[in-house]
Write a structure and sequence with these properties.
Blueprint (H helix, E strand, L loop, with lengths): L2 H8 L11 H13 L1 H14 L5 H8 L8 H6 L5 E3 L5 E3 L18 H10 L11 H16 L2
Antiparallel strand pairs: 1-2
């Protein structure tokens, strides 16, 4: 089973974000609101949508039960967003924890990228792959070239 099949299989799996204790949740929310990523996101929403969200409103949206990213799980694993070169240095969250737990829901539009990267060792965005279909063609071509050696 290749990365694409694993990703497709994961799309049917149940998923829910991490639940924190009330004490952990308070620390997490405070740290999240203070992070430059959070403040940048607020500004981006204001510019794009013309809406000035409060910290509490943006937190509520990011942490809703049907969210497609586990921010609390990332924080609990010691992760916060970092500048990501393929996106011009904009802040991004990792797709999984160091022990392999997926932080993106199976429905997240870029969850496929983690499966690709795990198998190939390459960041699809860094090599210009924008869709799972493009990435599959790329990995299939690399596989054929390896077998042809």
């Amino acid at each position: 089973m290749d990365w694409y099949d694993k990703w497709q299989e994961s799309r049917g799996a149940s998923w829910e974000p991490t639940h924190l204790s009330p004490e952990e949740a308070a620390r997490f929310r405070k740290e999240l609101v203070q992070h430059p990523w959070f403040q940048n996101l607020k500004r981006e929403i204001a510019v794009a949508d013309g809406v000035q969200l409060t910290d509490a409103e943006l937190l509520a949206d990011l942490l809703r039960p049907d969210a497609d990213y586990d921010y609390a799980g990332a924080w609990q694993a010691g992760l916060m967003p970092e500048p990501y070169a393929p996106d011009g240095g904009a802040y991004h969250w990792l797709s999984s924890t160091p022990n392999g737990k997926m932080l993106k829901a199976p429905s997240h539009p870029t969850a496929w990228m983690e499966y690709f990267a795990r198998e190939t060792g390459e960041d699809p965005a860094a090599i210009g792959l924008k869709t799972p279909e493009d990435a599959r063609r790329y990995s299939d071509l690399k596989s054929v070239k390896k077998k042809g050696r």
